């Protein structure tokens, strides 16, 4: 096995799928609590209540909720804390949670109210994810080629691709012990059920973007 795809002795692919399923359930639970006027920090408080209800063991990365212009920011960039969700606005949720000793990582973008351009952006992030995942399934592309393809398709669709987002490993917690690096730098075809494909795009001129991520090789939601 490629060392970048190493796992621990307790690794179980069925538990990986369980963690993914539960992460999507948590994301839906947070979405149901989002209301106009809420701040990102207030939304994170709501998220913790959802996690308690679902029996989350721990977070393997901090909860990321971005609203409005903050949707342009990457995971490591700090949000403008004054931003609140408008009546016709966009936001995304990014969760990294541990269930049964295995990691899940999911993200999706949603739109509040009537905002056609923002809705198109959210839908484009999902469509781009699906196209890149299909290229992985059918062409056996390595990580670098996958992200080159993503950039090409985003440009063709009329969106700006965020080059700072390059995907990563998951596994039995903590996957970081294997120092696997980014999916976008992986030489060789990534194996199913181990790598998260991350997609972040932005409107070419307006201050908003969209994010979507999921496990490569996972069944359709």
Automatic annotation (TrEMBL):
Q: Which Gene3D superfamilies match?
A: Creatinase/methionine aminopeptidase superfamily (3.90.230.10)
User: What CDD domains does the record tag this protein with?
Assistant: APP_MetAP
- Which SUPFAM superfamilies has this protein been placed in? Creatinase/aminopeptidase
List the InterPro entries hit by this protein, alphabetically: Creatinase/aminopeptidase-like, Pept_M24
Q: Which Pfam families match?
A: Peptidase_M24 (PF00557)
Q: Which domain of life is it from?
A: Bacteria
Tell me the ranges covered by the Peptidase M24 domain, including all copies.
Answer: 15-183
UniProt-recorded name of the protein:
Metallopeptidase family M24
Species of origin reads Frateuria terrea
The major lineage groups are: Bacteria, Pseudomonadati, Pseudomonadota, Gammaproteobacteria, Lysobacterales
